[in-house]
């Protein structure tokens, strides 16, 4: 009986560790949380003022792309571009939307023939973005984030 009481007393002292809660430090919790993020996707796409009625993610994305494409197309339509050869090219514009909602062109990819025929292409594209409606940045986990996009534009000049 003494041995049984001793074993029970011994077990009760060492079982206290079983009930002790492990404390996780904030760095461990942060690292685990960061592993679950998909950094290549946002919760809400950047929005122009005219796209605020788009509730669905895909509708918001389409409205964003359509607004930029339409604005650039209209701007090119009023330009008097004179070429000596027919230009048919797909221009790829790399855009960056900052956390504050500023839209900038980071790179313009095009064929060499297009650059020769339209030497002012870069400045025309930069000026075409000046009159866009107010832009709100993308949202990721309730935070405004910087995003980057590639926008292909088909250019045909005869």
Task: Summarize the helices and strands and which ones pair or pack.
Blueprint: H1 2-14, H2 16-19, H3 26-36, E1 47-48, H4 57-78, E2 87-97, E3 103-109, H5 112-117, H6 121-128, E4 135-136, E5 138-140, E6 143-145, E7 147-157
Count, helices: 6
Which term fits the overall shape? elongated
Write down how many β-strands occur, each being a DSSP E stretch of 2 or more residues.
7
Mean pLDDT: 82
Approximately how much helix is present in the residues?
40-55%
Strand order within the widest beta sheet: 3-2-7
Q: Which value, in Å, is the CA radius of gyration?
A: 29 Å
Class by SSE composition: alpha+beta
Subunit organisation of the chains: single chain
| β-strand amount | 15-25%
Distance separating the two termini? 105 Å
Uncertain ranges:
none
Tell me the number of structural domains.
2
Q: What order do the SSEs take from the amino end to the carboxyl end, as H and E?
A: HHHEHEEHHEEEE
Main beta sheet = 3 strands, antiparallel
């Amino acid at each position: 009986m003494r041995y049984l009481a001793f074993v029970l007393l011994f077990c009760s002292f060492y079982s206290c560790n079983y009930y002790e809660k492990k404390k996780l430090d904030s760095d461990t919790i942060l690292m685990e949380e960061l592993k679950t993020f998909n950094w290549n996707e946002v919760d809400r796409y950047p929005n122009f003022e005219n796209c605020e009625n788009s509730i669905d993610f895909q509708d918001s994305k389409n409205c964003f792309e359509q607004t930029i494409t339409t604005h650039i197309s209209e701007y090119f339509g009023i330009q008097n571009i004179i070429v000596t050869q027919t230009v048919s090219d797909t221009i790829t514009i790399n855009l960056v939307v900052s956390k504050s909602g500023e839209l900038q062109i980071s790179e313009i990819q095009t064929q060499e023939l297009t650059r020769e025929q339209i030497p002012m292409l870069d400045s025309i594209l930069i000026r075409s973005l000046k009159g866009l409606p107010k832009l709100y940045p993308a949202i990721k986990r309730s935070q405004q984030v910087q995003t980057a996009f590639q926008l292909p534009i088909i250019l045909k000049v005869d």
